[in-house]
Amino acid sequence: MDSHRPRSIEVDFFRGIVLIVIVLDHIPGGVLQHLMLHAYALCDSAEVFVCLGGYASAAAYGAVLSKKGEKAAHNRFYRRCWEIYRAYLLTAVLTLLSGAILQLLQLNRPMVDLTGWPLFAAAPIREAFDIAILRRQPYLSSVLPMYVIFAITVPFIVPLARKAPLTALTASLAIWALAIPLAKLFAIDDVSDWAFNPFAWQLMFVIGILCRERPVSDQFLESKPGRWLTRVAVTAVLAFAVVKLFILTQPLPGHLKQNLSIERVINFLAIAWLAVVLVRAGTIAKLAHKAPAVIKVGQTGLVCFVGGTLISLIVDTATPHSIHGLTHGLAALAGDLVAITAVLLLARFWKEWKGPTQPRAAVSGADCR
């Protein structure tokens, strides 16, 4: 463990890819979403996003701690909590405003219902209060309240992960196992209100923190047990892909994702292990160097997430839904490409407006940044 390690371009690359995938996944009529992770696995981009969030949080905490001390590190994440909450409110406002405009123009009725505008218009004061206290989150903003909670806990989880990683993992697993009764205790067990049970999804966040603080060594990866785990991971990923493609072809119950079911965890861990292997081999760094625009998306995560919600709504509305066949497929593909381009341009504009940042380092040695 080294608190002076920089964040790597691999992390920013993965985050950029995931943010683009999230935008594509939220375009109901899109074509490329059928090629995304959820089409071949029981987990999806949400697990990757939350795990990388934990990783990046641990890296940021360590960087501030080493430069300015513990108090500054704590204050940084309390401010971050407020930043995420404001981003959540902005996302909610943009979503509801989009729904209002679509209803006024009588466009894309299914999306109007998804935005939650009809419910808000029927009882604006009550709905605004429920949104403000995180009781209800409009479409596309539901992951951010969970991040508000996680940001508060970073100053406590990261030091524990450094001093007693096994204790941190055991505690996280225990909370995950009790996630459903804990959610009921806090009255967030309804999928329509909380799309992500924070008591369950904290496991992904903690795993990300542990990956930063206690990375797997190169020696273990190259050892006999390490190679055996790699073979097991490959087998598991292929098996889950077969199950998803040929057996579980219909949408799965929402509570499995909401409460982070065990099969989702296992599938993600298998994919994550293979990702570590590719990172150590230098494959991801080579890809990242060839896609600097994607890295910029990863470096402007919160901005691209909020902007991506609006992009997905606009693209879905602009894509014709009355046509069918090849014409519809081409139109939907064009919409997907427009969405990707818009996210890349948003990241570029934001980076240029904010000014240059320090370059990211690639992974080397036994590190897994």
From TrEMBL:
Identify the Pfam families for this entry: OpgC_C
According to the record, the segments passing through the membrane are 12-31, 37-64, 85-105, 144-161, 168-188, 194-211, 232-252, 264-281, 293-315, 327-350
Keywords associated with the record: Membrane, Transmembrane, Transmembrane helix
Report the InterPro entries cross-referenced here. UCP028704_OpgC
| Name of the protein in question | OpgC domain-containing protein
Q: Which organism is it from?
A: Paraburkholderia terrae
Upper lineage: Bacteria, Pseudomonadati, Pseudomonadota, Betaproteobacteria, Burkholderiales
